[in-house]
Amino acid sequence: MREELHPLSDLNGKPPGTTSWSGSITEAGTEMRSYYGRPIVKEPTWTWEIPTYFFTGGVAGASAVLSSAARVSGNETLARRALYIGTVADLVSPALLISDLGRPERFHHMLRVVKVTSPMNLGSWILLVNGGATTTAAMLQLLGKWKPVRIAASIVAALAGPPLATYTGVLLADTAIPVWHEGRHELPWIFGASAAASAGAAASIFVPPRDAGPARRVAVAGVLAEGALMQAMELRLGKVGEVYHEGEAGKLSWAAKGLSLAGAALLAKRGRKSRASAVLGGALVCAGEVCLRWSVFKAGFQSARDPKYVVESQRGRVEQDGTKATTKPGDSPAPPSRGA
């Protein structure tokens, strides 16, 4: 994570968003107030590249699985184009992470070790394995050479696909940000369902309707599963889940639901007969899934900014299992591109 001195830092060099160790949390009515009105945990330093990577990484991982499944079933057209879609997404994803890092060598430094307890480190390796295997399979597919190697590469990509599609949800949950950490039971599954919907929708855009049946079904199923999981997570989060209905996160959440459901309905009803409907439906679903990733991203910032969500999440843990709150002032999440 970049450690930069904020221009509004106090004399001790503490940037806004860091609570003094001697500070305290008080409750006035239902309003939670922190020391000097500052947040208890720091907001992430992530920029637009990270939620965009959440989407492209999901597309890459799910497309690898869709391609292999289509090839096993004998649908070569879908298998080839899903493979190419996944390859493009795999090429874009490292570029987004390197852009977020600011210096390309930092991405290389993440690969110097393998740390199984770090979602960030494992995710870097998963992206490398999936991207290398998918790109190899796509190149050999285009050249029409070395079929055994292509098949082996496709199998490796398919095995690495599900972890690539879901590890970012694990990464978000493994932080001190209240709405992300409290959503740890659902976030990986939500990201997986969203990835499936995105990959199916993208394939529906580029594959003729007669060959895109499995992709359409995956897209519709992914949208429905994601919607059910989001609803379950918001209900379980209680007060902490309010951020998904407020501010930018709320607007993006509603956009995600509306676009995804409209696209899924169009794919289900007219996608088989009309190429234009399939393209429009697929585009709507993809737009909805981008909004979903941005909604989760913005919700994290909003929950870190308001002390009441940190306090409520800690109290909830105490009431449920009697454990002591472990979040310390100044805690901040570890982004997926800050080094191992």
Q: How does this structure look, described?
A:
- With 340 residues, the chain is mainly alpha-helical.
- The chain contains 11 helices and 2 strands.
- It has one domain (49-320): Up-down Bundle (Formate dehydrogenase/DMSO reductase fold), CATH 1.20.1630.
- 67% of the residues lie in helices and 2% in strands.
- A two-stranded antiparallel ribbon has the order 1-2.
- Helix 2 (76-101) crosses helix 4, helix 2 (76-101) crosses helix 7 (187-206) and helix 9 (247-270) packs antiparallel against helix 10.
- The chain is globular, with a radius of gyration of 21 Å.
- Mean pLDDT is 81; it is low at 1-30, 325-332 and 334-340.
List the helices and strands and how they pair.
Layout: E1 26-28, E2 31-33, H1 49-72, H2 76-101, H3 105-109, H4 119-143, H5 147-173, H6 178-182, H7 187-206, H8 213-237, H9 247-270, H10 275-305, H11 307-321
Helix pairs in contact: 1-2, 1-4, 1-5, 1-7, 1-10, 2-4, 2-7, 4-5, 5-7, 7-8, 7-10, 8-9, 9-10
Which terms would index this structure?
340 residues; mainly alpha; Formate dehydrogenase/DMSO reductase fold; two-stranded antiparallel sheet; 11 helices; 2 strands; 67% helix; disordered N terminus; disordered C terminus
Q: Kindly provide the name of the CATH class.
A: Mainly Alpha
- Total E-strand runs: 2
Give the N-to-C terminal Cα separation. Answer: 10 Å
Oligomer: single chain
- Strand order of the main beta sheet, please? 1-2
Query: Beta fraction of the residues?
Result: under 5%
The CATH architecture classification is: Up-down Bundle
Task: Write out the CATH superfamily name.
Answer: Formate dehydrogenase/DMSO reductase domain
> Residue-averaged pLDDT, rounded?
81
Residue windows where pLDDT falls under 50 for at least 5 positions = 1-30, 325-332, 334-340
| Tally of structural domains | 1
